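I have a small job for you when you get a moment. Can you supply me with one protein entry, sequence and fold together? It will help me judge whether the discrete encoding reads sensibly. Write everything out right here, beneath this request:
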Amino acid sequence: MKPAAASDYRALAQRRLPHFLFEYIDGGAYTEQTLRANTADLQQVALRQRVLRDVSKLDTTTTLFGQPLSLPVILGPVGLAGMTARRGEVQAAQAAAAAGVPLCLSTVSLCSLAEVANAVRSPPWFQLYVPRDRACLRHLLDHATAAGSPVLFVTVDLPVTGTRYRDVRAGSTGGTATQRRLRRAVQVLARPRWAWDVAIRGQPLQLGNIAAMLGRTAGLDDFFAWLGDNFDPSVTWDDLAFLRSQWPGPIVLKGILDVEDARHAAALGIEGIVVSNHGGRQLDGVPSVARALPAIAAAVGDQLTVLADGGVRSGLDVLRMLALGAKGVLLGRAWVYALAGGGQAGVAHLLQLIEAELRVAMALTGTTRISDLDASCLVT
């Protein structure tokens, strides 16, 4: 039986994934105050119900960076998402393509850009972590160009990795290498279905986009070591000029949470930003996206495309983000839960649920087009 709501997929994912992998996907930084605030603050956004309006014809389509979408939704980049189902990012990309929305592939995806691009008609968008090694950076950009990725998301809120205690407790990090491997092995044995379908039948389990840097025999410890050693904390606004010289298409900065940073991005001619706190996985205690978004959208929304992520679990949440000022919404944990719980069919069902919920919310707020969703839909 399929889940009745998108949020139900989380429980399925928890039952099917090894504990360390679920905790990596589900967890946040420090005491997870911001992680909780993302969902709580968004759900407290009060909508303005309108009546006696002709809502017999609803249009959920939009266009982002020149690409027509059936919904104002993007499957956002999530590292290691491909480990939640066999060749997981390929399954997610195929579900997204069938629904008419894009997938933005993470630098640290299991499936490579080439593998995903070969599985769908329209190539995925690409999310870039800027590495210290500029040869590695050029390799990633060349990789994305060769795959035909039309849009580059540059994650800017990760100069260092956030402190994530759940990963320590679950065995992804902390302790000795032997202790970590033993803990994870026990957890994998407790999920024989995942072990057979993903760990065995889903080989090779390597991070496709950076496999050349890690080596063919790299494991989970090598992945976390690469994250800790290869992020470049010296990157500044000046480095965006180099990225612009190497990338022919739109550039979107992911991880903007401050009005002044948003204005700086607009002044440099950046095409888009994602108002995001990295799903509460970086600096705990920063504002939720629902609180930060309105001021940022008001400041720069007519100069670049404002997107948002953080706490979105339903079509109603999508409408809330759009009413707060976003032009499009990235799903993160929501689609990974669905992938873990039901594979490609789960992601397809999730997108169907979100579209249905969005249509009902549009009708009951008296709006018929995505472009009509703004602050007038909110109770102030």
In short: The CA atoms of residues 176 and 203 lie 26 Å apart.
